[in-house]
Amino acid sequence: MTVTLWTLATLASHWRRNPVQIVALLVGLALATALWSGVQAINTEACASYAKATALLGGPDVKVFRPNTGKSMPQTVFVELRRAGHLVSPMIEGTIVVDGRRLRILGIEPISLPVAATPEGLQATGEAEGVPAFLRPPWEALAAPETLIRLVGNETLPPRRADSSLPENTLVMDIGIAQQVLGMEWQIGRLLMEPGMGLHVDVLHRFGLAPVAAAEHDVSAGLTNSFHLNLTAFGFLSFLVGLLIVRACVGLALEQRLASFRTLRTCGVSARRLTIAVLIEVVLLALLAGLAGLVLGYVIAAALLPDVAGSLRGLYGASVSGTLRFAPEWVFPGMAMSVGGAVLAAGSALWRVYRLPPLAAARPDAWRDAQAKQVRRSLIAAAACALAGALFYVYGDSLEAGFVIIGCLLLSAALALPALIGAMLTVLGRAARSAMSEWMIADMRQQLPGLSLALVALLLALAANIGVGTMVGGFRETFLDWLDRQLAAEVYVRGADEAQARAIDAWAARQPEVRNVLPGRMTDTVFAGQPIEVRSVVDAPTYLEGWPLLAVAPGAWDAIFAGEGAMISEQLAYRLGLGLGDTVDVGPGPLTIFGIYADYGNPKGQIMLSLARLEQDFPEARRMGTGFRLAPEDVGPLLTRLTATFDVAPDSVIDQAALKTLSRQTFERTFAVTAALNLLTMLVASVALFTALLSLFDRRVAQMAPIWALGISRRRLAALELGKTLIMAALTAIVAVPVGLILAWLLVAVVNVKAFGWRRPLIPYPEHWFTLGLLSIAVAAAAALLPSWRLSRIGPAHLLKVFANAR
Amino acid sequence: MLTIRFVRKTYPTPEGPLEVLRDVSLDLAEGETLALIGESGSGKSTLLHTIGGLEPIDSGQIILDGTEISAFGDRRASAFRRDRIGIVFQQFNLVSSLSVDQNVRLQARLSGRHDGTWITRLTRTLGLDGLAARYPEQLSGGQQQRVAIARALALRPDLVLADEPTGNLDAETGDKVMELLLELVGQTGCGLVMVTHNLRLAEMLSRQVRLIEGRIA
Amino acid sequence: MRASVLTLWLLLAPAIAAAQGFAGLGADADGFHDPTPDRMLDFPADHGPHPGYRIEWWYLTANLEGADGQSYGVQYTLFRQAAAPPPAGEGWANQQFCLGHIALTTADEHFYAERLARGGVGQAGAVAEPFAAWIDDWRIAALSEGPASALGFGDLRLQASTGKFSYDLRLSTEAPPVLQGEGGYSVKSDRGQASYYYSQPYFRADGTVRIGEQVVAVSGRAWMDREWSSQPLAEDQSGWDWFSLHLDETTKLMLFRLRQEDGRHYLSGNWIGASGSAPISGADIELEILEETDLPGRRVPTSWHVIVRSRGVDVSVHPLNPRAWNETQIGYWEGPISGVGSHEAIGYLEMTGY
């Protein structure tokens, strides 16, 4: 024990004498942990929010039924089923707008409600006897504490009590009062049953009911995963980069202390004890850095979460709490990743310590020479990885395979990077004319093995940025374009009921400035066992020209308006393997598919028919807002006249420009998150580079000394040193662009399709690469500045020592 | 106290095995000081390292005070070295991040045989009093070697091994260091085996053994 | 059984709990009607619900003989509980709650089930004409659409089922309802607690019972009790022991003992014969425990010596199954009994508050 303690004390004395190194080591590891745990924290929080939302419906085991068509059914369905002995519980759900924000209203019948679906607030109450306040006037509602605060002072809604198990912006109340609040008296939306119970097919048929698949009422299975995929990809890549930093740091820390290790060995510390001491040191440092990383990760997550929550709410309507909690789900994996990663990264170094002969000639370069020899071997391994990736691409057909391919790509690129940069330096070397530039190239080649780990970190950071940036950017562009087409009309108006809607349509048709009136209907149904939407389209040229068609048969629109054909969304086509010329059979007769269109962000498949055909086949289909086409400057006056003529609720009139602004804002928030993560990843890479340069410093001095002796000033040498680092960073950036693009392509064309069923066009953003290139050079400059500055300040005596020691 | 019997040691080289030590046998009496002399490559440093357990031997025996240390693996050899043997190297081999004082006490602390009074006397004798808080890089070569000698003797070893202790020092400093080393070895009563190619220094020890191509001449 | 805590809250209040004196029903019935001795019962209107009173029940028990030679007992109960005085409120706002208990007893087994529902939307409730009382698919209702005969219930069909057991019985009688107490006003304590109480003890029952997959044809006698009140028990009354006995084709006996904390139990009953119904005073009745049964967590007197001196009744009654405990949210003993001695009797025993 004494031996281990004094050995540890001796090891630690190195850090006291070289604080910059330990700071770099800790910062690198902490940043890596922070990014990873921060992203995990965001994901965990979001998933917890979804889980709350899902749990409200009783989780995956509770049986849920909904009407075959439409969003609601008469309450008598519930009574009839109960009186026929089927133990269903009614539920109604809807949204209202309070102070300009959406509020989800969930009406439940607590007595018949499956136990698994009962909110905590109803299970634990202080009331010892009598009917709970939930069930008697004035019908107390339950809401998350955050929601309660939001609703303080509201007198129109029922009184409220806190239930922290509920998702935000949701008000759970008795079904009776919920029907009133939603204006849906005598209507119910869904029926729930205890797990293990069910309804016979005949019963379903008789009452026009359809079972709701677990996935459909599980929000987390929906599109929101796309967003989390981005985050997870970032977190994982940054952790990889972090591991490389740790490896570089630990390698540096060991190499610089080789002489001390040998002295300890000659003083009688056995190889085993020394290795254990180094391992203890690494674990302690990892724990310390991991803890700091967790705190930092928490700060990052807490700062980003409101934006993430905003994005998810705006994009997909998924409600995520804006506040963060320390959860074991991300705290423990964060620490484990930090410690495990550090030990893993230090593994080979530890092995070398174990095998360290106490008397081997003290040549710190030995490791690097060995690494230089590894370049060839790495190249072979890179080729093997690339081949494995290619095989997975050809033969794999799953989401998992997609991730394996990405892993192969990144590994292959990382392994090949030193060789690629070496090759580029050879080409540069041929072009070199002056003795100085020849020396620079030669020197960079010599420096390469020592810097390769840091450069790989930079490569991965850059590639991840390009890849994820391209994916998100492409998403934004196509989504906004699609939004433009979907919201072709300048104004959308929803009537309070069918009669008012018809009146408004007729009124609008008489207004001189209105060029087109575009009514629409939509209904929900089940097709091939899947819940889908059926929507209408009207024959208006300005509307149809911009329709986001992915595939179309000749004469498509004519066939559709003749009531003979249909178009289907990409998701539906992908899921059911349908193509042009196939038929879909949802109404009274089969319809031929004449087109496939993009319908981003919709977890359900969609079929589009002409309005006439839809009204004929689905008389119960509900109205969508009617679109009016008119000149943008006429919108204001028209709306003024409309509200003067009709009693329409403020939220029933949608100004397209306002809606688009809202959508854009949502995307900008998404981008804020992505940009912040981008920056952090680059920061991690910068620390990696800095650490590597520091580790090379002593060796650099030895190589600089002869040049200095030849009459090159220290200042000039320092500038050259900085220049060389920047060139290497630039070369890395050049390699990163194709790697990033392949990554983006894999994310868009493989992972996205497998995960969500639609493919987005890949749009390259050269200006983004350029920015990233500049950023990587800036990062390299920041990393190289201190070592270069130190070089410029180094005393001549220190340089001379190089000669004195060279015996 | 030290008995060496038929020690053989071979190094693999690209040109085939190189015999460095060929049946070396040697004895060292209690308190005796022995100089190993010979040309470069004669095997004298290798012999010293095998005595210290820093390098394993191929065959033969090295016995210190009745313990066959050549039969030990790394763990026991390390422990034995830590507790019984002080080594002084040509390159001083100090821990650069430890102060003079910490370097002096390092092995004594590791072995758990830390004697403050003795170490104070030792540092005073070696003239290191005023340098305790300095770091190796701030010392001259002679000072560094005096620190190394202090470290080797701080645990009151049974045997001191010295490998060209004055090799990196000028003649005057070297002589001073040599005098101090012998004085302290005398005070401690331990044995000393010293490798040198300096005959004048070798003469200062009680016995001289010459190695030629791995054999005792 | 479902164990939602919510269910518990509701069950803390209803009828059976009232007998145990901890549900606030011993307290003043603010806003609710109180039974008065001068009110004449009015049929068929009084077959239906009385939402102005706090609690009410439709209680049917049947002693049946199976085609397999075994004896069976059937219980069907619908409790109505008002959480607030009138007006009752419409739809989901209705503050009337219903609790259903069903049970089936053989010599070896006892099955029971429980359901809870809200009034107002049609899931559970009762109507006077044509008569029906139901909770979900547990239902007792008039067979024909026509007016009930002789102001009684006419022919009824009783149906209830769970996964484990079910029954489907046809109940028929020509007899008019029998008023308990004084013309239907039944006093429950010396301090004035009372209820409206009438019975139909003359039902002939036949149909089927099912246990698991096994269906058996059965026939026998059934007895229906109707009772409503707002404050049926005194504060210090902790439970009751209630007997309904078919002494022969026309002679029926109802008697009960309300146990008081001071040990001075309140006894009362009615003699029902061909000439009508007559109250029996407490002094005329003697009840003696013959045997007790150990059930989980409690000891219940399951065999009794029943004496009504003025009518020459002296019988020992024994249960078909001494373990006929309904382990519902508020548990009680309810099972078929038979008596020997002065009369060969069959009937039902209900014991609460143990």
Describe the overall structure.
The complex is a heterotrimer of chains A (807), B (217) and C (354). By secondary structure, chain A is α+β, with helices and mostly antiparallel strands. Chain A is built from 25 helices and 20 strands. In chain A, helix 11 packs antiparallel against helix 12 (328-355) and helix 13 (366-395) crosses helix 14. Chain B is of the alpha/beta class and 217 residues long. Chain B has a six-stranded mixed β-sheet with strand order 6-7-8-3-9-10, with helices on both faces. A four-stranded antiparallel β-sheet of chain B has the order 2-1-4-5, covered by helices on one side. In chain B, helix 3 (100-111) runs parallel beside helix 5 and helix 5 (141-154) packs parallel to helix 6 (171-188). The two termini of chain B are 22 Å apart. With 354 residues, chain C is mainly β. Chain C is 3% helix and 53% strand. Chain C is built from two helices and 23 strands. Chain C has helices spanning 5-11, 15-19, and strands spanning 55-66, 71-82, 96-105, 110-118, 124-127, 132-135, 138-142, 156-161, 165-172, 178-179, 185-187, 194-211, 214-229, 237-246, 252-260, 266-273, 276-280, 285-295, 298-308, 313-319, 325-326, 332-341, 345-351. In chain C, strands 1, 2, 3, 4, 5, 6, 7, 8, 9, 10, 11, 12 and 13 form a 13-stranded antiparallel β-sheet that branches. In chain C, strands 14, 15, 16, 17, 18, 19, 20, 21, 22 and 23 form a ten-stranded antiparallel β-sheet that branches. The longest helix of chain C has 7 residues, at 5-11. Chain C starts with a helix and ends with a strand. The interface between A and C is medium-sized, with 37 and 31 residues.
Q: Sheet bearing the most strands of chain A, described? A: 10 strands, mixed
Terminal CA distance of chain C:
21 Å
Compute the CA-based radius of gyration of chain A.
Answer: 33 Å
Contiguous low-pLDDT stretches of chain C (5 residues minimum) are: 1-29
Number of helices of chain C: 2
Strand content of chain C: over 45%
Mean pLDDT of chain C: 87
In short:
Chain A has 807 residues and is of the alpha+beta class. In chain A, 63% of the residues lie in helices and 13% in strands.
For the structure shown, list the relevant keywords.
heterotrimer, A: 807 residues, alpha+beta, ten-stranded mixed β-sheet, eight-stranded mixed β-sheet, 20 strands, C: 354 residues, mainly beta, 2 helices, 23 strands, 3% helix, globular, disordered N terminus
